[in-house]
């Protein structure tokens, strides 16, 4: 990675929203006061790790085995997913280091292309990027919690954890960061211990039973391509620190390191966990199991240990929920600063979080608890977010052509190969999803269309101008 030492930020570079100016260049409407940069580089890395290591890794492999009934092919799916996520993180790092503001794709797509694309990205983030993953993570939390405590209600456990963490992050940013760091460090230690124990007890013939040719042929099937959507969902969050970029200290250096290091650590964790999962039992016993972590723990240590491990996984999911509840509202806050109709979402005082944005996200997530199925949420999220990410990574090329001499505190390692590979692999998954699950693709397209309509209803103040 190439990180330059020089850091230059314009005044607008630390604001939460885009700069909107009139044709004459005068400010039409001032931005809300920029939030303080109180989040450390370590906390930014923990947000990436916590955003990624959540419900996906503890649920996806069982669902994936229904599409890809080969342990070795599934392991390759996780390797490919890690490579895609890492290349995406390297690409995002260049753009976010140039424009270190809260908002993630909302800010980046508005700046690189047009405000309508940024608004649609923000809309997708609200429904697909954060509210839906919060709902699915809370569902998984409820399932694992009730597996450990049978008398507990799945819904009320999920409801309570969303409300509790929303309150923590609404009250004070530094309090939310401290809670986030504690649960993430605990997560890393517990997962590391589980991997170490599982590697000593696993039966690796479950993974090596297929010949290399059989594995390769399985990887060429449409089911494998669709299965990668599930894996992509599990890796969702590799861009987590991009959403809080406006509150990170020394962002030009801290952001690229947080994105790349966090993604690399999680990729290694995922490979270790999947070796343990797939060595615990035959594919037939793991296929279709949402609570695969509990199944594996029971296989290794007995039913009592399985219940204990279910409680541990529920605890680990708190970290993931916390990261998403922390990051998502920063997007809606940035949108509120740019669109008068959404202004209430930008309101915050001192070191508090964006209160109304957090409330909106919690309400939508709880609504999804009542109406959505877990597997449907995963496929819908994976497809729609892949489209968002591809457009953002293409933005690296756009900005290199449009502004070749612009200050770049970090330049994407491996450019142009790494962003091209990310784009091609992502497009491969998107195309196969459209072919194999057209209903999901239609739902994703409908979400995008609704976002376009809402953009024209919301009416931005004026056309965005590049403020760098």
Characterize the structure shown:
It is a single chain. The chain is mostly helical and 468 residues long. The chain has 18 helices and 2 strands. It has a domain of 301 residues: Amino acid/polyamine transporter I, CATH 1.20.1740. It has a two-stranded antiparallel ribbon with strand order 1-2. The protein is globular, with a radius of gyration of 21 Å. The chain starts with a strand and ends in a 10-residue tail after the last helix.
Ends apart, CA distance between termini: 23 Å
Instruction: Tally the helices.
Output: 18
Report mean pLDDT, rounded to a whole number.
Answer: 81
- CATH overall fold name of one domain: Amino acid/polyamine transporter I
> Percent helix among the residues?
over 70%
Largest beta-sheet characterization: 2 strands, antiparallel
* CATH superfamily descriptor of one domain: Amino acid/polyamine transporter I
Any guess at the CATH architecture of one domain?
A: Up-down Bundle
Strand content: under 5%
State the low-pLDDT regions, or none.
1-32, 463-468
Arrangement of strands in the largest sheet:
1-2
* Extended strand count: 2
The coarse overall form would be globular
By CATH reckoning, the class of one domain would read Mainly Alpha
Give the C-alpha Rg: 21 Å
Characteristics:
18 helices, Amino acid/polyamine transporter I, disordered C terminus, 468 residues, mainly alpha
